Amino acid sequence: MKKRIAITLTAMMMMSLAACGTKDASSDSKFKAGTYEGTANGFGGEIKATVTLSGDKIDKIEVTGDKETQGIGSVAVEKLPAKMVETQTVKVDGVSGASVSSAAVITAVTSALETAGVDVSKLEAIEAEKKEAQKETLDVDTVIVGAGGAGMTAALEAKAAGQNVIIIEKAAYAGGNTSRATGGMNAAETKTQKELGVNDTIEQFVEDTMAGGYNKNNIKLVTKMCEESSAAIDWLEEIGAPLSDLSFSGGATNKRIHRPEDGSGVGAFLVKAYTKNIEEQKIPVYYDTEATKILTNDKGAAVGIEAHSEDTNYTINAKSVILATGGFGANEELYTKYRPELKGYVTTNVSTITGDGITMATDIGANTVDMEQIQIHPTVEQKTSLLITESVRGDGAILVNKSGVRFGDELRTRDVVSAAIIEQEESYAYLVFDQQLRDELSAVEKYIDNHIVEQADSIEELATKLGLDSKTLANTVSTWNKAVKSKNDAEFGRDTGMEHDISVGPFYAIKIAPGVHHTMGGVEINVNAEVISTDGKAIPGLFAAGEVCGGIHGGNRIGGTAVTDIVVFGRIAGTSAAQYNATVK
Length: 585
Ligand code: ADP
Description:
By secondary structure, the chain is of the alpha+beta class. It is built from 17 helices and 22 strands. β2 (46-53) and β3 form a beta hairpin. α2 (73-87) packs across α3, α7 (219-238) packs across α17 and α15 packs across α16. Residues 1-26 have low confidence and may be disordered. It binds adenosine-5'-diphosphate. Residues 145-151, 168-171, 176-178, 290-291, 324-326, 352-353, 356, 546-547, 566 line the site of adenosine-5'-diphosphate.
C-alpha cells in the first residue's frame, strides 16, 4: 500500500525553515511571491503548469494538458497538482499507468518553481503517521475485478440481467490495456461487411484465428468467439460505440477489422462509451482498490473477494465473481519466468497489468493454459513505449531497415514481423508513410504530438534526416509504389494494405522495435466463461473474461482479436454469472 503523505502545520513551518528557494531580497520569506509558468511534453502534447507562490507556501498549482489520454493521463493532470500543494513538494507518486503524463506534470511544475528560483530538491515533505485501515463489508450479487474492456462489458451485461454489481479497479481510472488498443475489432458476417460487399464467413474467421495461433488455440473458444462476433458489434452499436469503418489487418483473409468511423483508436473510443454506460447504469466502481484474494465456501465455490484501498480493507461477499484483471505483460518477473529471453524488453502494457487474476484464481485451484505464449508487438516506439497501430501498415506504410530497404511483407503475423525486425542490423526499423495515410488515420496525430515522427518534404530529405542513404530509400519507395500500382509485390508477396502508394508529401517515418504486448496464456475457461480447475471441473461462482484467460489466441494473437475476445467473453461472463446467481440460495 502506498504511504499516505500529509502535512501538518508544524511540518510546514519546519519546511519553511529548512527548504531553500531564492528568498525575496526584501524579506525573510521562503519564496518570491508571484505566479510562475512551466511547460513539458506529455503523452499527448504540451503540459502547462501555473504555480502561485506566497512568501512561504505553494498556494496553488494549475495544470492544463488537454491532449493527455482521457481517463489515464488526464487523471495525472487532475490529481497530481493537488497532491503537490498538499505535500508542498514535487516529489509525489505518479498515477500508475500514466507515467509519461505524470512525469510531464512534475517536470512542468518543477520548471515553474525553478523560474521562481526555487531549488525543488530541497523541498521535503514530512510523512504523517500511518492511520489504521478501516474495515468495510459489502454484499452484492456479482463482483467484477478489473474495469478494463472485459470487466465493463461483463458488468453491463450482468446489470442488464437484473444483478446488483460492483467493479473493483486497482488503477485510478478505468480502461486498462483496452484503452491502449489502437487497431480495431475483428468480426465476421457483420452488417458493415455485408453493406460493403465483403464476403466473409465465420468459418474463415475461425480458420484465420487458428492459423494465426499455430492451431494451439482452443477451437471451441475460438468458434464461440467468431460466432458471437457480429452480435457483439451490434451490441457495441446499441451502447453507443459503433465500429462502422472496415479495414485489413495482419493475418486476416478478408477486410474484417472494424474501427471507429472517425479513425480514432478503438480502445479509447470504447472505454469512453463503456464508462458513460457504467455511469448511466449507476454501477459503482471502486478505484484505487486492489483485489487480493477470492473467497470460497466449504464447497469450493467462489463467494466474494478481499480487496483494499489506501485506507480501507474490504470484504466483498457475492454470489459470483468475475475476473477481468487483464494479462501479465507489465510483470517482468512473471513473464520472464516463462520466457527468460524477454528480459529488458519495453512493454506496451499499463503498469497495473500484473497477472493478479491469474494468481488469485490459481490460489483456489484454477488451471492455467499457454502461459509461455507471450506476444511481442513489432512496432513499438522505444522511448515512449507507444505502440504504433497495425493500421499504419494496414493503410499502406512500409517497414525499412537501417540500410533503407524493405525486408518482408509488413502484414504477416506479429511474431513473424517482430522476428524479422530483430534479425535486422541493430534490431530496429522505420515505418515509412505519406500524407495520404496521415489524412486517413487520426492515430498518426497522436504520434506527431508525441514528437516521435520524423517529417520531410521529400523521401530523399526524410532519408537524410533518418541517417539513411537517400538514393536507396528513394529506390525502395519507388519499387513499392510500382508494386502498389500493379498490385504485385514481386519482392515479398504482400497483397494487402496496398490501396495507396507513398507519393504525396510530406513524408513521415517512425523508428520502432518490438515490445512485450499481449500474454496469450492465462486461466482456463469454457465457452460459458466458467473458470476450470486443475481437475477439469468448472469452479462454481467463478467466471473470467479477457486477457486474464488463456486458450483463445493460442501461440499468437491476430491484431484486432483482443477486442473481439473482451466484448464476446465479457458479455458471456456477465450473462453466465447472472444465470448462476439465480441458482444460489
Ligand atoms: P481486459 O479488458 O482484457 O480484461 P484490461 O487490461 O483492459 O484487460 O483491463 C484489466 C483491468 O484490471 C485494468 O484496468 C487493471 O488495472 C485491472 N486490475 C488488474 N489487477 C487488478 C486487481 N488486483 N484488482 C483490481 N483491478 C485490477
